[in-house]
Structures are given as structure tokens and as C-alpha cells.
Design goal:
This protein is an all-alpha fold. The chain has a domain of 94 residues: RNA polymerase sigma factor, region 2, helix turn helix motif (Rna Polymerase Sigma Factor, Chain: A, Orthogonal Bundle), CATH 1.10.1740.10. Helices cover 71% and strands 0% of the residues. It has nine helices and no strands.
Length: 202
């Protein structure tokens, strides 16, 4: 009953917002804010860029409400717009330059200093953060479409067929993007593999 009520309420809100009701538009944003933001954060890798991306998505929603036909759920439409907006923004030179400027590894000089059995809790946390930072840097090396496909498949467990629909490509294209993305990540993170003889050690 709750889902049906939500669908009915959303339909009314869309009509009201398209007619110029700002409070209805605000309600739509509140209904979908978290879903859009968390997808944006998975795609961007940080909350600051995710906030900017989500804001741009909702600006597009406001501009296109009068042409929204309701042939798909609003959540589905927002999902596609978030993906496309992310891909477009990643392709822009300004976005790439900003990411290069923001990239900073405070533990860069500590690499190679890990000695098993001699790490305190704060040091272990720092090492975890270092690994996470390197994983994020590796994800940043993927193309916009490779990262979008990877995030949807491996972060959100989205079926390949649905990814293809969201991205507007064939399933074979999604599989190719996933293959290339995984290969790039394996290469970028190969140095994180445990030394020979230590894998599985207890």
C-alpha cells in the first residue's frame, strides 16, 4: 500500500511541479535526493563532487518536467540522467583538471614502511585509508563509461541488461566496458597483492 501511495503521490506532484508549483518540485527532490546522491557518490568517489552532480541532475529535472511524459518511473529517469550527467562531466577538461588538483595522498612518503605485527591501531587505520585512496585513484583511471558500468555492476549488483538500458548501449558493450575496467584495475592495483608465500597466512 505504501508503494502504491507513493507512486500516486509522485504522479500528482509531477503534474503540479510541471504547472509551476515550487513546493511540489521541492517534494519531488526530497523523495529522490538520497537515491541520486548515493549513486552520484559511487560514480564520483567523493561527496563534494556528488553534491554538485546531484544538484545538476535536479536542475535538469526542473527544466524538463513539462516534457516528462511518465512513460518511465521518475526514479528510472533520474537514474539515467545521473549517469549521463556524470559521463558528460567527466569528459569535460575542467572536471579532469579539478580531479588532478584535488588528488592528494598524505601518506605517499610512508609507502613501503609496513611491517606486519608492528602496526598500532592508528597506523592500521592509516594504512586502510591509504589502500582505499589507491583504490579510488585506480577507479579514477577508468573512462567515464567504464567506471559507470563498473559501479553499477560491482557496487550496486545491477544486471548487465539493466545497465545496458540505463546507459543506452548494447549488453555486449557493457560486457566490454566491464572487461576493460577490471583489467585496468587489476593492473593499477597489482602492487597491493600480498607477497608470495604470505597469501592466506594466519
Amino acid at each position: 500500500m505504501e508503494v502504491a501511495a507513493t507512486i500516486a503521490d509522485e504522479t500528482v506532484l509531477i503534474r503540479r511541479a510541471a504547472a509551476g508549483d515550487r513546493s511540489a518540485y521541492t517534494s519531488l527532490v526530497e523523495m529522490h535526493r538520497n537515491r541520486v546522491f548515493f549513486l552520484a557518490r559511487d560514480l564520483c568517489g567523493n561527496s563534494e563532487d556528488a553534491e554538485d552532480l546531484a544538484q545538476e541532475v535536479f536542475v535538469k529535472l526542473y527544466r524538463k518536467l513539462d516534457s516528462f511524459k511518465g512513460s518511465a518511473r521518475l526514479s528510472t529517469w533520474l537514474h539515467r540522467v545521473t549517469l549521463n550527467t556524470y559521463i558528460d562531466s567527466r569528459r569535460s577538461r575542467a572536471w579532469k583538471e579539478k580531479k588532478q588538483t584535488d588528488a592528494w595522498d598524505p601518506l605517499h612518503e610512508q609507502r613501503g614502511s609496513y611491517h606486519p605485527g608492528s602496526v598500532t591501531a592508528p597506523e592500521a587505520m592509516a594504512l586502510d585509508n591509504q589502500v582505499l585512496g589507491q583504490v579510488e585513484n585506480a577507479l579514477g583511471s577508468l573512462s567515464p563509461r567504464e567506471r559507470a558500468a563498473f559501479v553499477l555492476r560491482h557496487f550496486r549488483d545491477t544486471p548487465v541488461r539493466e545497465i545496458a538500458g540505463s546507459m543506452g548501449v548494447r549488453e555486449g558493450t557493457v560486457k566490454s566496458l566491464l572487461f576493460r575496467g577490471v583489467r585496468k584495475l587489476q593492473t593499477a592495483l597489482a602492487h597491493l597483492e600480498p607477497p608470495a608465500g604470505q597469501e592466506g597466512a594466519r
